[in-house]
């Protein structure tokens, strides 16, 4: 039986049910749709990202703002009506108060984003579009993820 991966802050009230091929196909189609939206909205464009960091255009700030708004609405809906396809209730635990970890994490993320010219989401989209230098970005994103896993117990949370 395959169990869903644990997502910090989100848990179900009973055991996970195995995923079906139909469910995995739905995730694949949603990912493909998301990739097309990233490309068409120019969220994966290095030039748009540089415009944002240089305060030359509102385009990316509008995209990020709409993503934040969507996240707020969907999290509120999950907290109120959330359940899995199997009927299990989804519980979203509140975040711990404090600002340091968010500021430090945001600075590290923003530094990587500014240096690479792309955030982690569009890396696979850009690889799918044939932008092969993104393999370097992917390699370092995976290295950073690995290092976080190694150092996790020593980091403040």
From TrEMBL:
Q: Which UniProt keywords apply?
A: Membrane, Transmembrane, Transmembrane helix
Q: Which domain of life is it from?
A: Bacteria
Q: Mind telling me what this protein is named?
A: Transporter
Give the stretches traversing the membrane. Answer: 21-39, 59-81, 102-125, 131-151
The record ties this protein, via Pfam families, to:
DUF6691
Query: Does the keyword Transmembrane feature in the UniProt annotation?
Result: yes
């Amino acid at each position: 039986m395959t169990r869903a991966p644990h997502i910090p802050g989100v848990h179900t009230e009973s055991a996970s049910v195995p995923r079906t091929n139909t469910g995995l196909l739905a995730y694949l189609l949603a990912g493909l749709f998301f990739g097309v939206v990233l490309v068409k909205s120019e969220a994966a464009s290095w030039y748009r990202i540089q415009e944002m960091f240089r305060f030359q255009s509102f385009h990316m700030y509008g995209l990020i703002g709409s993503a934040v708004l969507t996240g707020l609405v969907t999290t509120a809906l999950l907290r109120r009506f959330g359940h899995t396809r199997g009927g299990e209730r989804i519980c979203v635990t509140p975040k711990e108060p404090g600002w340091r970890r968010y500021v430090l994490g945001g600075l590290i993320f923003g530094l990587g984003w500014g240096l690479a010219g792309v955030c982690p989401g569009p890396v696979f989209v850009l690889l799918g579009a044939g932008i092969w230098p993104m393999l370097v970005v992917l390699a370092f994103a995976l290295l950073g993820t690995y290092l976080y896993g190694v150092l996790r117990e020593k980091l403040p949370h």
